[in-house]
Amino acid sequence: MNWPTVGRSLAIARVEYRRSLRAMSENTTQLLGFGAFLLLFVGLPTVGGSYLAYTAGERLIETLPVLDGARSALALAWLGPVFLIAQRAVGKTARIEHETGMLTTVPAPDVLGGLLLAEAARVLSIVAVPVVVMAGALALGIGAPTAFVSVVVAFLAVFATALLVGHIVGVLIKIVVGQSELLTRYKSVIAVVALLAYFVAVSSETVGRALFQLSALLQDAPTAWFGDLLVVGIPGVAPSLPRMAGAIALVAIGVPLLLAIDVRAAERLWYADRAQPGTRTYEESDTDATVLSRIAAGPTRAVVEKVWRRTKRAPIRLIYVAYPLFFLFAPLQQAFTTGSVPASLPILLALYGAWAVGAAALNPFGDEGALLPVTLTTGVRGRQFVRGHVIAVATVGLPLVVVVTGIAGVLSPLAPARWLVLAAVSAVLCLVGPLLALAIGTRFPRFGAVSVSRSREVVIPSKTAFACYTVAVAVGALGAAVALIPGGAAVLSTIVEIVAGFAGLSIAIAPPVLRVVGAAAAIGLVVVAPPLAYRYVARRFESYTLA
User: Fold this and answer.
1) How many beta carbons lie within 10 A of that of residue 5, not counting itself?
2) How confident is the model at residue 280 (pLDDT cuts 50, 70, 90)?
3) Which among 500, 496, 468, 471 is positioned nearest to 482, based on CA atoms?
4) SS3 content of the chain, % helix, strand, coil (to 5)
5) Nearest in space to 544 (alpha carbons), one of 448, 442, 444, 462
């Protein structure tokens, strides 16, 4: 067994870690998002947990079953980094930059050691301080310095074993996918389906129930032995000596064994031939041909085919469409947990569905990529270009949105007349949204690819286009709600007064005025904007000049 050389692995780890920091510092949006994550999910829990450990640690130890709780908690917590590191290994960290050159100059075990140390440094940069601070607060609160040592040692044991197991799982997944032509071809589709399945599972509290059951089942698992290691320094709590010895053996024997397995798996991944799905030409299915023959012909049909082909080959390019799904978490969770669909869910589904259908056409020029010069110089005219994009997204999205909205409406307490109108409005918006999105995306295009993983880059709409389109749809929908829903204008008027009051202003808008403004906004979105957007994109396409 060739073990990683510490010096070479540390050198590679330093480079990888610095590259991660540099990549984040160059992306302002990602940096701000990461800062918000640290504040909400690391900083605040650390402060609250440290305060609780310092002020009430001794009382909690005397009243709660600390040993059983530590066993269940650490066995369950061990799964967290395993899942996280496996997911990161699949997406990024199982491969190194300039892999071919690196593997011909540095032994594979040293490369793997560098990747593991870099990943350990990334994770510890986030969790090490909270663990040390809370362990110190507990030790001070109960007056036992040994508690600090035992908590930190138990954390390191959990982390070391979870890091290796998670990385092995991620590498094995990449081996299976990379050596299967079928999985390689459809890995983007699999990723999208997995994301949707995860969202549904979280919304239905399936994950929560599974974790609750696991916490009881894992109490006797080997990873629960780390709980005995954690409490060894806490006075008044007697750990099981055999289990504590087992925890030490897990680290002493398990870490070298897991490292050896990881080296073998990584070598298999890096040196084995990868599946080549090939460069197949687009084969139009009978269904596609039937649908297209009825709704489009000539150059318009060619545009539709290209959009569908592009999406089939790389559905991951529409990943941004899934972002607002998280706003549906609360009503979906309520529907799954109570068995009754809230009245707000059909409305939100209709609004999100219409937004998503339009958002799929939000970057028409950027999506063309290197083929943009060819597209601009073919026989496709501007109006055909616009119609092709609208047909491509509406043909797929409109029926789906109407059906989902209708089903949610039937299951909700909404009157049939209301959810039928809602389904009809969603159908209209599925035609209006793409036109509006095409105009905004044409005005604010993005041609450069954005990295979604270390080995995958896709072109997605610009942040400006995304924000402008979202705001436009939201304003139009809000305007319609204010104009049509009884009492909607009065509620908005009250909200405006409250917000102005917080700002030290005195603003009062009469509900009739808001109703008129809301109607104007809705009419502008549905009636005025579409033809203007249609003509703008068509003219822009025909007069576009390549730089």
Assistant:
1) 15
2) very low
3) 496
4) 80, 0, 20
5) 442
